[in-house]
UniProtKB/TrEMBL annotation:
Organism phylogeny: Bacteria, Bacillati, Actinomycetota, Actinomycetes, Pseudonocardiales
The keyword Amino-acid biosynthesis is annotated on this UniProt entry: no
Organism per entry: Saccharothrix lopnurensis
UniProt keyword annotations, A-Z: Membrane, Transmembrane, Transmembrane helix
Protein's name according to its UniProt entry: ABC transporter permease
Signal peptide (residue range): none
Residues spanning the membrane: 17-37, 78-97, 124-147, 153-175, 187-205, 236-258, 294-312, 342-364, 385-409, 429-453, 460-478, 506-524
């Protein structure tokens, strides 16, 4: 552990703005959501009507989890925002640890630091301490904000402690993931897969019903946050599960880091063939070879996610048929058509954000190639800058279509089987999913423009995704001005299925994406490689 204090100070200094944005964003959105819920569900009658329907329906259970107690606004907050807040805290924690471990090794900076008086475990410990500080700030400030808004002290503390504890679990998962592959991107992908698996297990377990595999909820850290039940009994012993799991993952990571070479991974990269095939020659072929595995993983993941959402779609109509007020809320969140269509439009909006995350990852693969000094040898050949970067952009653009189509296919197959119209629902929901393609392209174009013009700010591309999530999923609830919600490209997508499709917004989004791509390609031609 020699040098731990210096490394912690270095990590906090490097990430001071990034951590500030995460902490302020998470705490601020929680506080604003609680304030908005006070206005919408300020009476016992309104909360009782909500509890009688939303908390017992498979559709809302899969999306948000169970509504354990609607007697207070805090209980509604834990239901409406708790799962998403825990998911974002987990994302922050996992990526924070991989950033200060595997990414530092990949760039060679950790080897330089290790040549000084630094212990073998100190870098990993420093990353984990930084994650602990970030999660503690989120937990404490969230609890104080809720107490300041008049919520119960015990429930507020449980809510904040639950978020921090879930964050620690995913920090440990990120630490283990950082020991397995040789690349930071693969480590981030593994950590992201753990997050996605945790969400799916929770969704299936919550929506399973009395005779289904409800025990799956207990297999997910997000499910542990629900079982803690902030503002609904505050079951403090449940915190032992995430704390013990985080400790176990840290021990595993500490053992693994001592059993591998610096810069290497426990799962070494498989060497490629001695000669390249025709399909992998050229700029596009190289980009496809580098990214095809990631695309396959995202497509399979969204196929499963779409199937989970499609499995519970029919239950929405049963829940809302006798509740016009709640139907109006769902229409705001998802669309203006039928109740089931509104639900499907809402969940496809969430799926589109996952697709945008893929598009950002695929686009920024070019940045990883540049930072890791693999782009310069390629560009020293007759390959032009535009062709090299255009190959990665083409994979991101085409891959976005593939992952969205996979999500629509999964939802259409399962929902079609339940309503007896597989062919019709597949065509319908694949088309509805593909309607989000132009918005996803805008996000990819923004990432490309930042990479080309201000490469040091490429991380902002990831920061906009939580912002778009808040604007899209909580904008109507928070009663934001229209101009604020219009900052997200996803708010301009027709809420299909169910709403009338107009070509104008999709064409405008495509034009904006094309302009951003053009700016990015032109900007990359004019700046130094490796900047």
């Amino acid at each position: 552990m020699t040098g731990l204090g210096a490394l912690v100070r270095l990590a906090l200094r490097r990430d001071r703005l990034l951590l500030l944005a995460w902490v302020v964003g998470l705490v601020g959105v929680t506080a604003v959501t609680a304030s908005a819920l006070h206005e919408l569900y300020g009476t016992v009658e309104s909360r009782g009507q909500l509890a009688a329907t939303a908390g017992a329906n498979p559709a809302f259970l899969a999306m948000l989890g169970p509504l354990h107690d609607a007697s207070t606004v805090g209980g509604v907050l834990a239901w409406r925002w708790g799962v998403f807040a825990a998911l974002l805290v987990g994302l922050m924690s996992a990526f924070l640890v991989t950033r200060h471990t595997r990414a530092e090794e990949e760039t060679g900076r950790l080897e330089l630091i290790g040549s000084a008086v630094v212990g073998r475990h100190a870098p990993l410990a420093a990353a984990l301490v930084t994650a602990v500080v970030a999660n503690a700030l989120v937990g404490v400030l969230t609890a104080l904000a809720l107490i300041g808004l008049g919520e119960g002290v015990a429930g507020s503390l449980a809510f904040g402690a639950g978020l921090a504890a879930v964050g620690l679990v995913f920090a440990g998962a990120g630490a283990v993931a950082a020991q397995l592959p040789e690349g930071a991107r693969t480590a981030n992908a593994l950590a992201g897969a753990v997050l996605g698996l945790a969400y799916l297990l929770r969704a299936v377990g919550d929506a399973a019903g009395e005779h289904g595999p409800t025990w799956l909820t207990w297999c997910s850290p997000l499910g542990w946050f629900e079982q803690l039940r902030p503002f609904a009994g505050n079951r403090w012993p449940v915190l032992a599960l995430p704390v013990a799991s985080a400790a176990a993952l840290v021990v595993v990571a500490a053992v693994l880091v001592a059993r591998r070479d610096l810069g290497g991974g426990l799962v070494p990269t498989r060497p490629g063939p001695a000669r390249a095939s025709r399909s992998t020659t050229g700029a596009f072929g190289l980009a496809w070879r580098l990214q095809r595995g990631v695309l396959l993983g995202w497509a399979l993941g969204l196929l499963v996610l779409g199937a989970v959402y499609g499995a519970v779609a029919r239950g929405v109509e049963e829940m809302l048929v006798d509740n016009p007020a709640l139907r109006q809320v769902v229409d705001r969140l998802g669309g203006s058509g039928g109740v089931v269509d509104a639900y499907l439009a809402s969940v496809l909006g969430i799926v589109a954000l996952f697709a945008a995350a893929y598009a950002v990852q695929a686009t920024l693969r070019a940045r990883a190639e540049e930072v890791e000094l693999r782009a310069e040898p390629v560009l020293a050949t007759p390959v032009s800058r535009v062709a090299w970067l255009g190959g990665h952009v083409a994979v991101a653009v085409a891959g976005s279509v593939v992952v969205l189509a996979a999500a629509g296919l999964g939802a259409g197959l399962v929902h079609g089987l339940r309503v007896g119209d597989v062919g019709g629902q597949v065509v319908r929901l694949v088309g509805a999913a593909l309607a989000h393609v132009p918005a996803v392209w805008v996000v990819a174009g923004l990432a490309l423009a930042l990479f080309a013009l201000v490469p040091k700010l490429t991380a902002v591309s990831w920061a906009v995704l939580p912002a778009f999530l808040v604007l899209g999923q909580l904008g109507p609830l928070l009663r934001l001005d229209r101009w604020a919600m219009d900052l997200s490209p996803f708010t301009h997508v027709p809420r299909v299925p169910g709403a009338e499709v107009t070509a104008a917004p999709l064409l405008w989004l495509t034009l904006v994406a094309a302009v951003l791509v053009g700016v990015g390609l032109a900007g990359f031609r004019r700046r130094d490689v490796g900047q």
